[in-house]
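User: Second chain of the day. Same drill as before.
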Amino acid sequence: MDYKIKEGNYEKLGLVRKGDAAIFTFEGEKEDECSILFYGKNLEVTEKIQVPEAYCRGSIRSICVYGLPKKNLKYNYEINGKVKTDDYARSIVGREKWNDTCRAAWDYAICGGDVPGEFDWQEDRQPEIPRKDMVMYKLHVRNFSMDAGLRGKVKGTFQAVLEKIPYLKALGITTIEFMPVYEFEEIVMPKQMTLPEYLCWESREDDKIKPVEKTPTGKVNCWGYVPGNYFAPKASYSSIPEADVEWKTLIRELHKHGMECVMEMFFDEKVNQNIILDALRFWVGEYHVDGFHLLGTSIPVTAIAQDLLLSRTKLYYTSFAPVLLETKKTYHHLYIYSDEYLYPARKILNHMEGNLNEFLCQQRKQHEIQGFVNYVANHNGFTLADVFRYSGKHNEANGEDNSDGNNWNYSNNCGVEGRSRKRFVEYMRCKQMKNAIVMLFTAQGVPLLYAGDEFGNSQEGNNNAYCQDNRIGWLNWKNKEHYEWLISFVAQMAEFRKQHPVISLDVPMQQNDYGRKGFPDLSYHGESAWISALPMDREAVGVMYCGSYAKKEDGSSDDFIYIGYNFHNGLSNLALPKLPGKRKWYLAVTTAGEEAYFEKGKLLENQHLLSVEGQSISILIGK
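Assistant: Same format as last time:
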């Protein structure tokens, strides 16, 4: 190549193009021998440019190179004789094909240096959906659509998700959480070999040194919870060569439909914390991402939450420093994301050390500053259907003697392990799934569905399907026809939650009449009305919300809402408080039987007593 060099500007890490100049800025000490490697068509090194020792500030090296091609540029750094991938690379070359075992012989990823084209965002703006209106849906791009009956190259891609936006919108989803979509290596290598090295060297009797090639284990790391290339969208998730364009198009279309995009970001303890902050800023600025679910133990969460550029970006983590909860901002963007809802919900549903007080605390859990994400199923554990289909995990296909995965699932197979044709078993499973959905959508925190739970998707009892790039890990969209009733139930519950904002108030319930409405905002009722405490052995309770504490979209006060929970096996009778004026109680939702009335309701014959079938939930509207 005919090139010229000069010292770079140290302004931004990674590769930056300015006219005819390509500026490479990267981590490196002054004493290090640093070079830029350039690769040809067959990924062979074609050029090596040494970075002068003087091109250094602090621990950063920067060089400006003139004369480099703007297309098909591929590069890496070489530091003290070891090839290193650019931490800030915006694309990775060679990972366009999912699980291509030809990469097993690679000991590093190669960076793409092409200048990205302009993208027409069409005046795109982030929806900033209020916490009380949010319904989240978590999916894995590939697993979501591989078995969805889509055509050729679209399967397993961003485009496939885009085509499902109308379906998700109709389901009531407002916010999609994506499992890792940045570049990561899905090919799993033997644990005894140190990554990223691909050669181990053995001594022979004739003292000759012979390389032994690293070979894949046969597993696939589908999920991507490993260190990755945090500035590059995953090329194998794109149906076109320009993964950045397809990912941007998906986000733009989500925003057009009033929906949000949340990215899961996993960082291990070795990742430089500057990279973490830079990566989050990058995805917000370049891709208009709405939020991040942060995973890892050494993440500068407080610094991220206080970053001015990210102050309107939703952040999800296991906990936040108290200082962040003292900040009186107009826009609250912090969300607790943990399993603390899952366990009380499953325990009481499946009669496994369940505690009604613990469960009700989760139902009314709320904070003025930080929100809470609630779920009964997630990627780590059973799907919703499997919670009531399997009593024990079945991870044999993972090749680890069923020793992997969570042992504490609090699941119950309803009498038969796995599939069953027994009508009563199937009836109980269907009812339990509806119970879980009602509980989730009537909790004050943000409800989250794991992809496929709305149509009974099963992973055949595998509660750790990280390596199942097959019909175990893929969503079975053929189930959709059989579970249309459940899809409809989920959509109606999402709409019910939206129509009754008293359920999802942004502030904690006080359980008293602090607003002088004539009723407490939240009250509990048993066989007699207005009980102040719940006995430890109770498994049935009525919960009443006073609608006067919330306003509907038209400015009118919400209705009274009464939820009768019965976790007993037999019938329970719950007292109904007398409503003010001419209001009457109407049955809106029941998980017993096949009827679900919702907004039109069914007038109760007995306005003083609600009978709730065993292991079922009923919702009344007082209007």
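The CA atoms of residues 214 and 584 lie 72 Å apart.

User: Great, on to the next one.
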